[in-house]
From TrEMBL:
PANTHER family (UniProt xref): RIPENING-RELATED PROTEIN 1, RIPENING-RELATED PROTEIN 2-RELATED
Name this protein carries in UniProt: Barwin-like endoglucanase
GO CC aspect terms: extracellular region
Classification via PROSITE patterns: PROKAR_LIPOPROTEIN
Chief place where the protein resides: secreted
Family (UniProt): Belongs to the kiwellin family.
Cleavable signal peptide: 1-26
Length: 184
């Protein structure tokens, strides 16, 4: 009897250990904070500029992707001189804001694996397909490459004007919207 109980406890402990280890291996999430620095940021799309007085959270992971992943849609310009910073990561080019394109938070961008793939975005009672062309960097920010904007939150679909228009959101309400998305 005593032996049996001990074996069972041992087995349970082993399972818990393996489960924890597995999770860490699978996600490898690095969460941190970075200190802002002052710089000039393009505020045409109501972007927040970094401040040297603040710290900003960073995260290499995003929430798990399902057929209906919740996210926050934000507005981004992918044009030269726009608030998107440099060229898009997937093709090293600027893009017209008339294209149906998005940038995804670092975890969802998945080391470029979603580059040039399409996602379906559901929002405002409508649906639109858009191409992934860039990363919304959740690990770095507050420097020139990121237009002195803070790191991206880890649940962002950062979309062109065209995506917002296709969802039928009036221009004066474009900026931030709860949506769901999936791989198309
Ligand atoms: C990233 O890509 C790998 C390989 O294609 C896939 O197994 C994994 O689920 C992807 N992760 C996310 C968060 O999309």
């Amino acid at each position: 009897m005593k032996f049996k109980n001990t074996s069972i406890s041992f087995l349970v402990m082993l399972l818990v250990f393996v489960a924890c280890f597995w999770k860490t291996e699978a996600q490898r999430c690095i969460v941190g904070r970075l200190r802002g620095q002052d710089g000039t940021c393009n505020q045409e799309n109501d972007a927040d500029c970094c401040s040297a007085d603040e710290e900003y959270p960073t995260n290499t992971c995003s929430p798990p992707v399902t057929g209906n992943t919740r996210a926050v849609l934000t507005l981004n310009s992918f044009e030269a001189g726009g608030d998107g910073g440099g060229e898009s990561t997937c093709d090293n080019k600027y893009h017209s804001d008339n294209e149906l394109i998005v940038a995804l938070s670092t975890g969802w961008f998945n080391k470029s694996k979603r580059c040039n793939k399409f996602v379906t975005i559901n929002g405002n009672g409508r649906r639109v397909k858009a191409k992934v062309v860039d990363e919304c960097d959740s690990t770095m920010g507050c420097d020139e490459e990121h237009d002195f904007q803070p790191p991206c939150r880890n649940n962002i679909v950062d979309a062109s004007r065209a995506v917002w228009n296709s969802l039928g959101v009036p221009r004066d309400r474009q900026g931030e919207l709860d949506i769901t998305w999936s791989d198309a």
